[in-house]
Amino acid sequence: MSLDRTALRTSIAVLVGGITVILDSTIVSVALHELAADLHADVSTIQWVATAYLLALGVVIPVVGWLQSRLGAKRLWMAALGLFLLGSVLCSLAWDASSLIAFRAVQGVGGGAMLPLMSTMVMQAAKPADRARLMSVVALPAAVGPILGPVIGGLILGAGDWRWLFLVNVPLCLAGLFLAWRLIPAEQPGRRVKLDLVGLLLLSPALVALLWGLSNVSGTGGFARADVIVPMSGGALLLLAFTLWAVRRRGSALVDLEVLRSRPTWAATALMFLSGASLYGAMLLLPLYWQEVRGEDALGAGLLLIPQGVGSLLSRSVATRLLERSGARWVSILGFALVGVATVPFAFAGVATPMWGLLVALFFRGLGLGLVMIPLMTVAFQGLAHDQVPHASIVTRIAQQIGGSVGVALLAVILATTSFHAAFWWTTGFTALAVLLAFALPTRQPAPEAPSPATPSPVRTAA
């Protein structure tokens, strides 16, 4: 059965433009020490190069649904990609730490709009029968980017100046803009949504406070630090206030939380939180293990992560076929179980553990991560009306972003107070919890046809 041509063309354009954003979120992580030395700043200051990008994402992601209703998906995508391109060029021209931090925030604003829009555009263009196969294309950057980012960053630093970490985005962004212009169809004018200003003033600061607090956990004192407790408490209160506000406003809220009445959507959202914790948390531990325990340098540690990326790449077609035959529940259970089992060898690993065994484990861990991503990103939209898709995309993206920050923060504290063994056992625990939660996902029931924007229907649940 052939894929719908319009949906396929949209997926290709989204893939080329979106992969730069996913890679950029991790590609800079290996360069912090080089940046600190070259820009004459201490590590605590240069850490804001990563933090500013993360906080900018938190500001923009909640408002993407409203922006799409005003500009249309194509124009918003091209504007966001153009802004990301501008931010990349400015970062390469930075003259000190402050300018680099500011330009990274510009990048983050563009990237923050693109991340949820990637899934939204494909889900709205595709027929339900085609969604799994198309999502295997769109999910590729999300699964492989965090794994390959440190590898590419290490290779660039080994061959040239840190400014190429940002200049490498330029050809991809230009290609993405051209393909978006040529391949993505223009949208018909839709219902113009009024901005929920109260919701914006509650949700964006809530996410910024939570992400900022979590980014401070790695310092001395862990979760007991004032710059962790205060922003996280404030963020949690603002998030609660937004939830109460959104429940009252329903479809007119900045982010319509009614989508969480759908069992596939809330289950996929919770699992995206756990997958973010497992993926990004492990991406903190694994390079540190290779460097601190096995004596590798930054480039060597990055290269040793390649088997995990290869496993994730190879799982694309397998995950799609399994999803069509067995449904999201069993594919997700298999994927999370594989990630957990493949993490266990690192919980026992030491200085003398055979390298080949750990590399094999990384390969199977990558397979598991790839198996998980496609069903979660597909089933999250099952049974939703056309106008609800952007809201589900925003909710799942927020869950993954916060989950990744929680995983990194928690494992950083565990590693600082105990050992690599304990930290890897915690990572395994994340996946064990995900296996249990995956039983809430639907089985082989196919996703119903999404109604047109003119005839919205209520949220449906799937067994």
Task: Describe what you observe in this structure.
By secondary structure, the protein is an all-alpha fold. Helix 1 runs antiparallel to helix 7 and helix 1 runs antiparallel to helix 10. It contains 19 helices and no strands. The chain folds into 2 domains: about 190 residues, Growth Hormone, Chain: A (Up-down Bundle); about 190 residues, Growth Hormone, Chain: A. Its main location: membrane. Pfam families: MFS_1 (PF07690).
* CATH class value of the largest domain: Mainly Alpha
Helicity, as a percent range? over 70%
Residue runs with pLDDT of under 50 for 5 or more positions: 446-463
Number of helices: 19
Rg for CA atoms: 21 Å
Order of helices and strands: HHHHHHHHHHHHHHHHHHH
What fraction of residues sit in β-strands? under 5%
Work out the count of structural domains. Answer: 2
Distance, first to last CA? 26 Å
* Largest sheet entry: none
* CATH architecture identity of the largest domain: Up-down Bundle
What's the CATH H-level homologous superfamily of the largest domain?
MFS general substrate transporter like domains
Structural class comes to mainly alpha
Main location: membrane
Subcellular location: Cell membrane
Protein name: MDR family MFS transporter
Pfam families: MFS_1
